[in-house]
Structure formats: structure tokens, C-alpha cells
Amino acid sequence: MDLQRRNNVRVTGDGPATLVFSHGFGCDQTMWRHLVPAFSERFRTVSYDLVGAGKSDLTAYDPVKYDQLAGYAEDVNELIEHYGQGPVVFVGHSVSAMIGVLADRRRPGQIAGHVMVGPSPCYMNSAGYVGGFEPQDIASLLETLESNYLGWSSNMAPVIMGAPGQPALGEELTNSFCQTDPEIARQFARVTFLSDNRRDVEGLATPALILQSTDDIIAPTAVGEYLNQAMPNSTLCIIDNVGHCPHLSAPSPCAAAMSTFFSTWAFA
Questions:
Q1: Given 23, 93, 114, 244, which residue is catalytic?
Q2: Domain residue spans of the chain
Q3: How far is the C-alpha of 40 from the C-alpha of 36, rounded, in Å?
Q4: 9, 48, 86, 245: which one has the fewest Cβ atoms less than 10 Å from its Cβ?
Q5: pLDDT tens-digit profile of 227-236?
Q6: Residues 67-87: what's their mean pLDDT?
């Protein structure tokens, strides 16, 4: 299988360790354009599009395989095996953070560290857990996606992005959402928002940096606090930012926190 074509893989930089950047729902690898250059002089960087997103090979999309996050995690392990050099740190935004956790669980030791940007192991509130959404909220969201994906994207993308002082970012995310195949987006949304990976993160010993925004409609700070307690070698860093995409709207503090994390764990 041609992994480069399947996932539109781009490799830049050089260094003793590899950073693998994985985007979130409705996005593509261009969302990492501020962070990849910040680290390409010290690390080998690998960015890619999830199958079904960006410029990935849409013919590789299998609705059975990708009806669970494990299908995407399988791809991650293949990409790491093929492109990884030295210790590998998986940098995942939103749902991709959990895809990285699943990849780690499947092949322990292949991932040396995680950077989780706006992660959430479960989006639904339940007894003793704050995920940010009531079950009926998720049901309504998915129903709207089914009936009017483009309308939902136009309304929700700017809200998800936040960044009130940077309206162009909201427009960018809207365009990204609208360029995604609606059928694939609907399925990925169901897989994302109905997932529950709390058992997978519980006790995960791989060093992890959790980057959480102060105001995030998708992943409230309570989620970051939950993850920090669940993973024994994790560090929680709260970024002063409104929105779910601090790597775009507040890249400098994200890069600084990542640099500190890498030096602490001596990945390079």
C-alpha cells in the first residue's frame, strides 16, 4: 500500500526524534502550519491527512474500517513504522489525541510521548464525569449533521474555532468543513462524538502533554483535569485562548509548552 498517497504524507526537517502531527475532525494537515516549522529544525516532522480528509486518497476510505477510531489508529501505527525515526511523539488535535492513545495501546512502546491539543476521551456528561455535552445535545448535533451538514458547518465552525479577534480563522475552518465529503464527515462525526475512550486513557504511562484552552466549547478544562488525573505521567498546560484550535489561534504558547515538555522528557 502506498501510505504517502493514502494519507498525503509530508516529511520535513531532521533530528534524532520524530513528531507525527494528526489533525482533528473537519480539518487537514494545513492546520499545523504554525507548529511544524517551529520544530522542523530540531525534529523530523511527519504530517498527514486522515483518510477521508484533506488530500488523502478517498478511494482508500472504508466505511467499515473507519466506523471506529481503531481504524484510524491502525493507520497511525503503519505510518509510524514506515516514517518514524528515533523516539516518536504523537501530536494529536481533538479526536486525533484519542486515535494516538489507541495506537499506543495497540503497540506499546512505539510512541514515546503524546502532545494532546484539546483532547477529550468522552464528549458526553455522565455521573461523576463532565464531558461538556448532555446526551440529548449530542443526539441533536448528529441529527443536524445528517439533515444539513453544510448549514451546520457554516454555523458551528466559527464557534468551534473561537478566536474572536481572528475572524479569518473561523472562515478557514468553515471552508475546511465544507470541503470534506459530507457522507464521510457524518460518519466521522458519529464515531467521534459517540466515542468513549476513558478506559484507554486510564493508567496510560506514556509521557503526555495536555494542551487545553481556557475557553473551549468542545473540550472544557474539566476534561483536561480528568485526563491529567487519569494518566500518571501527564502534564496539563492551560493555554489562554478562546476556542478549540489553540495551535492556530495561539501557536506561540503551544510551541513554548511543547518545547518545555520535550526538554523535560529528553526526546531529542
A1: 244
A2: 3-265
A3: 6
A4: 86
A5: 999 999 999 9
A6: 97
Q: What is the tens place of the pLDDT at every residue in 135-188?
A: 999 999 899 988 888 888 888 778 788 777 888 877 887 787 778 899 999 999
Residue 14 designated active-site: no
Q: Which of 22, 47, 94, 120 is catalytic?
A: 94
Respond yes or no: is residue 40 known to be catalytic.
no
Query: Is-contact 211 219, C-beta < 8 A?
Result: no
For residue 56, pLDDT beyond 90 = yes
Selecting among 216, 234, 247, 249, the annotated active-site residue is 216
Is there a catalytic annotation at residue 94?
A: yes
